[in-house]
Amino acid sequence: MSFLVTALIFGEYWGGMLTVSTAIILTQLVFLKLAKSARYMLSTMRGAIPLVAIVFLLSLLGVLESAASSGELIYKALASSIRFLAFLTSFNIFFLTTSPDEFGQLLLKLKIPYVYSFTFVAAVRLAPVIADEAQEIIDAQRSRGVEFERGSPFRRMRALVGLFVPLLINSLRRAYEMAEALEVKCFGASEKRTTYREMRATGRDILSAVMVIAALTLVLTARSLRLFSGLP
């Protein structure tokens, strides 16, 4: 989460956006290498290449109107795409290391209404289901001769329509079925909810929280002092 906050703070060109985003990604790779999970991270980054390329192109088109040199245009597009990748990797690590149920209990501890915490937990739990369903649709389209990795960029984008349309329809159908199931089970009828397993903070959790808060304080202090000003 600290990586995500840091990537969110540094959103100014020539204010450390590219430098900080690159540092975040490299730090995450080092931590995952120590945990022997770097391969999972690399596979995620490899799968995010099309999205990063789209962000790069959209950012490049967005800054073409400004009267800047070609190097400046490429820098701004590259900084935006690397920052987007830092967001993806931060969310990846967050969901890799945090149980949705535990995070939902944390939201309840923070007095967040249960409706919002349940919505977040349900969205996290449905993400792998949607990913598996997307892979099944891709396999079905490939069996019909549709190519997602060959041809011109426009042909690939047109092929993606055959993926997103059935995926959207199935997601809406699943959401409607879940809403009916929650209504049948009288969701929200009881204001006070109990949990089978009560979550309590340990000494290691407190130490980790102190370290994260200290690191974020240093980053915010450095940014307020404009120590990153002028950095790419």
Strand content: under 5%
Give the CA-CA distance, first to last residue: 23 Å
The profile of the biggest β sheet is:
none
Which stretches are poorly predicted, pLDDT < 50 over at least 5 residues?
Answer: none
Order of helices and strands: HHHHHHHHH
Please, could you describe this protein's structure?
The chain has 9 helices and no strands. Helix 1 packs antiparallel against helix 5 (70-97), helix 4 (49-63) packs antiparallel against helix 5 and helix 6 (100-109) runs antiparallel to helix 7. The chain has 2 domains: 1-97, no CATH class; 99-200, no CATH class. The model has no long low-confidence stretch (mean pLDDT 76). It has helices spanning 2-9, 17-34, 38-47, 49-63, 70-97, 100-109, 114-143, 153-184, 203-224. The chain is flat and about 60 Å long. 75% of the residues lie in helices and 0% in strands. With 232 residues, it is mainly alpha-helical.
Key features?
2 domains; 232 residues; mainly alpha
Topology:
Elements: H1 2-9, H2 17-34, H3 38-47, H4 49-63, H5 70-97, H6 100-109, H7 114-143, H8 153-184, H9 203-224
Helix pairs in contact: 1-5, 1-9, 2-3, 2-5, 4-5, 6-7, 7-8
What's this entry about, in short?
The chain is mainly α and 232 residues long. It has nine helices and no strands. The chain has helices spanning 2-9, 17-34, 38-47, 49-63, 70-97, 100-109, 114-143, 153-184, 203-224.
